[in-house]
Amino acid sequence: MAETAAARPASTILLLRDGEADDKGRSGEIEVFMMVRHHEIEFSSGALVFPGGSVDAADRDIIARRELYAGGEGGDADALSFKIAAIRETFEESGILLARPRGSRELIDAEQAARIEASHRAALTERKTTFLDVLTESGMVLALDQLVPYARWITPEAMPKRYDTWFFLAAAPLGQLGAHDGRESTDSLWLSPREAVAGGQSGRFKLPFPTTRNLIKLGKQPDVRAAIEHAKRSTVVTVMPELTRINGGRQLRIPLEAGYDGELFEM
User: Fold this and answer.
1) CA 250 to chain CA mean position, Å
2) β-bridge mates for residue 253, sequence order
3) pTM over 0.85
4) CB of 78 within 8 A of CB of 8?
5) CB within 8 A of 68, min separation 6: which ones?
6) Is 223 exposed, middle or buried, given 0-12, 13-18 or 19+ CB atoms closer than 10 A?
């Protein structure tokens, strides 16, 4: 029997904003920032995904520097590393930075975020610097308190490459619009969960199963405030899909209590 591959820790953020009202004054749909993965990337090539990636050993170096983050009270090293990685990966992949200037209660504004991106983003993605150094040099404090746990998905044991991924919700900082890096991702866009799911059904987008289920779940919320408040009240149930065969067809089974409107889904 083949040995089960270890699941690598990873994090992703669903960055949210409220859509613009229509000409009749009706509120727009909630929108989420998403990216199209480069077709040559090994994992989820060509897929429409949320920004994120693997937890690095260097993310744990930040944990010892308590002055570099806010909102980690009561969290163990694993929990903190998932959140730190989520913000780092999102900055690397989109340029959006969830942080505050040291001594401030307000998230950094778009102009300051753009300066940090221009000075540090490329070097960070090329591993010529570390996120710890970026925070130290720019005088930033990570806003871990802005991340709300939303879901946890673990790749099935039968897969050769596996991830243990935490999904977080966060309201996008005002004015930070984000942009893909042109290497790991080839496009980026803000769109409603409804548009993303419809695009997956029509073939416009390639959507991984966990992404689709989380988009459908998110699309039930009318705005950012409601989505975040609902997530705060909810318990995250870990999902590790199991492949089943019923009546000659293949289906994925996930825990009903995870809140994805079902237990069995067609592949």
Assistant:
1) 28
2) 242, 264
3) yes
4) no
5) 62, 132, 135, 136, 140, 141, 142
6) middle
Comparing C-alpha atoms, which of 169, 43, 26, 187 is closest to residue 98?
A: 169
Element (H, E) at 62: helix 57-63
Phi-psi label, residue 175: left if phi above 0, alpha if psi -120 to 50, beta otherwise: left
Q: Are 237 and 258 in contact (CB under 8 A)?
A: yes
**Inter-residue contact 54 to 8 (CB < 8 Å):** yes
Residue ranges of domains in the chain: 7-19+29-236, 239-267
What pLDDT digit, counting tens, does each position of 178-205 carry?
877 656 666 789 999 999 999 999 999 9
Q: How far apart are CA 84 and CA 62, in angstroms?
A: 8
Strand partners, 163: 8
pLDDT, tens digit, 9 for 90 and up, residues 82-109:
999 999 999 999 999 999 999 999 999 9
Q: What residues have CB less than 8 Å from 205, skipping those under 6 apart?
A: 36, 47, 48, 196, 199
Topology of the domain covering 7-19+29-236? Nucleoside Triphosphate Pyrophosphohydrolase (3.90.79)
- H/E stretch holding 264 reads strand 264-266
* Tokens representing residue 254 in the block: 């996930």
